[in-house]
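Bumping my old thread because nobody answered last time. Still need a sequence for this structure:
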């Protein structure tokens, strides 16, 4: 039986509400503002820009991005070493809190103009969520790569994050935490997330301030440890 916090977080996501997720001590130690991608509206993009202030990204479940045949950005760089030697110098082999980055390519929906406005980014994020849901629930033999290409162009203004295979068993970043929580709740495992920053300190928003924000706006605050514990419990029952 999931905890009240997990149940409330899933319920909020299903209703199209934001939740706050803290990863854990010794990692990024950041709180992200999180929502299901398919539920995003222009005012949500504004809220992430204004209230959170970090990078607005879309996290994608591995069963989806494998069907889309998306690469990790560091793997894409490796294929270009022979032509662009500087990429070999930029290898992210010294990330202080992780072994690798979840970043993939950036995209805009083909119906956007510049792609950066709140309206444009909301369209891109929402359509990524909807295509992700169809891909996740659909036939694995479908050519989802072509479907992605028909609807999106790259580069763009929305960053894609690829949740690692095995999810929380192998990596415990916000990318995996958010799509794992969606999976726990039988929701569409394509999420939008944005780090909450503090304009006064110039650093990540503290846990205390994040909790005050959650209380002020009646949002669910959930720790990564709670999600990891619930995911492990379910994996053990499989």
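Sorry it took so long. Here it is:
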């Amino acid at each position: 039986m999931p905890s009240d916090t997990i149940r409330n977080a899933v319920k909020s996501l299903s209703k199209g509400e934001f939740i706050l997720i803290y990863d854990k001590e010794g990692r990024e130690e950041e709180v992200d503002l999180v929502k299901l991608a398919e539920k995003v509206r222009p005012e949500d993009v504004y809220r992430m820009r204004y209230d959170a202030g970090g990078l607005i990204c879309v996290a994608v479940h591995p069963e989806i991005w494998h069907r889309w045949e998306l690469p990790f950005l560091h793997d894409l760089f490796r294929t270009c070493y022979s032509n662009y030697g500087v990429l070999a110098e930029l290898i992210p082999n010294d990330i202080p809190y992780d072994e690798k980055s979840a970043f993939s390519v950036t995209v805009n929906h083909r119906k956007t103009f510049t792609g950066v406005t709140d309206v444009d980014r909301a369209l891109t994020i929402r359509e990524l969520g909807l295509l992700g849901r169809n891909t996740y629930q659909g036939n694995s033999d479908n050519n989802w790569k072509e479907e992605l290409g028909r609807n999106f162009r790259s580069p763009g203004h929305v960053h894609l994050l690829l949740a690692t295979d095995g999810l929380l068993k192998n990596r415990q970043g916000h990318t995996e935490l958010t799509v794992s929580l969606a999976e726990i709740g039988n929701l569409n495992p394509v999420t939008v997330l944005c780090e909450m920053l503090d304009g006064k300190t110039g650093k990540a928003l503290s846990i205390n301030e994040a909790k005050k924000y959650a209380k002020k706006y009646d949002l669910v605050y959930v720790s990564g440890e709670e999600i990891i514990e619930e995911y492990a419990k379910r994996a053990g029952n499989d």
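The first helix runs from residue 4 to 14. Let me know if any region looks off to you.
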